[in-house]
Design a protein that fits this description.
single chain, 322 residues, alpha/beta, D-Maltodextrin-Binding Protein, domain 2, 2 domains, six-stranded mixed sheet
């Protein structure tokens, strides 16, 4: 954890504090919710937006601002008027990974954005094709050691958590497996099903249905604890790799300078929404874990994750992208 980073964000929050009286009618119009990925990949964000609209009494309009792995949506959130009427549901990559992965970002996550609350997340799932003679992680690693350089792992692009999870496995297991980048998870899973690649780390929403149909084999999840939607799968930690944890999270952010009462209101409403039984049930059904946090807890988590991912990227020899 980096105390100086926490202090910077805390100072920004403190500087933005206004009296509740200064925000008498928030929100007084529709709210724009920026999301950095295409329609079809925004089920949870739209569930959240609908519930937030009910809670605030104003429309919450989701805008799919695609491009640059979500960085464009993060940049527009950061540069919006800080009045609470433009908010962003951003992924951890936009905040903790891309600051190292990209040579230069158009926004500074630690200065230009205020963390409001975690909303949802999920672990990746380690999967193998059905032709691989490995029924668990231990057997998969033993196979890789017996055939150095022969096994391949597909991923959704350089610097994604599906890629970095593979790099962490290579490092921790001391195995030589070849990465094969794709432009998205669908193509990865298609080639896994057809045995063109040996293994992958993938999102549970798209991969677990295939595993349950017997088309691919799920071996483990990458979260610290077992996933509530797949309790039968062990964690990587349980599978012989203590400390192996790569989880994907999405959180609510507002521009720096947003008044504290607005941040507090959004945090309170978000926590209430993600605790709703119907919301929790729906998310778990599709392989997503509802999350909540205070702004301070969120800041601390970001401070801890940022140097961790920087180290993973450096150790993997990934050069900064333009």
């Amino acid at each position: 954890m980096n105390p100086s980073r926490i202090a910077v964000v805390a100072a920004v929050i403190a500087a933005s504090t206004l009296s509740a009286a200064a925000q008498p009618s928030y929100p007084d119009r529709a709210i724009r919710l920026l999301y950095g990925f295409p329609a079809g990949n925004d089920i949870v964000t739209r569930i959240y937006a609908d519930k937030l609209a009910e809670a605030l009494g104003k429309p919450v309009v989701v805008e799919n601002v695609t491009g640059a792995a979500g960085n464009i949506a993060a940049d527009r959130t950061a540069k919006a008027v800080p009045d609470g009427h433009t908010i962003g549901v951003l992924t951890g990559a936009n905040i903790t990974i891309n600051v190292t992965l990209y040579r230069k970002l158009p926004y500074d996550p630690s200065k230009d954005l205020l963390p409001v609350s975690l909303i949802f997340g999920y672990p990746n799932v380690l999967l193998a094709n059905n032709d691989i003679p490995a029924k668990n992680v231990e057997e998969l690693v033993a196979l890789a050691r017996a055939q150095p350089g022969k096994l391949t792992f597909g991923h959704s692009g350089i610097g994604t958590t599906t890629h970095l999870s593979g790099e962490i496995l290579k490092s921790m297991a001391r195995i030589d497996i070849q990465d094969v980048p794709y432009r998205g998870p669908s193509a990865v899973l298609s080639d896994l099903v057809s045995s063109r690649i040996a293994m992958t780390f993938s999102t549970p929403t798209v991969s677990l249905p295939l595993a349950r149909e017997g088309k691919i084999r799920a071996l483990a999840v990458t979260s610290e604890a077992r996933a509530p939607f797949a309790p039968e799968l062990p964690t990587m930690d349980e599978s012989g790799f203590p400390g192996f944890e790569t989880t994907v999270w999405f959180g609510l952010f507002v521009p720096a300078g947003t008044a504290a009462p607005i941040v507090e209101r959004l945090n309170r409403e978000t926590a209430a929404i993600m605790a709703l039984p119907d919301v929790r049930k729906r998310l778990l059904e599709i392989g997503i874990v509802p999350l909540v946090s205070t702004p301070a807890e969120f800041v601390a988590m970001i401070a801890a994750e940022t140097p961790y991912w920087a180290r993973v990227i450096k150790d993997a020899g990934i050069k900064p992208m333009e």
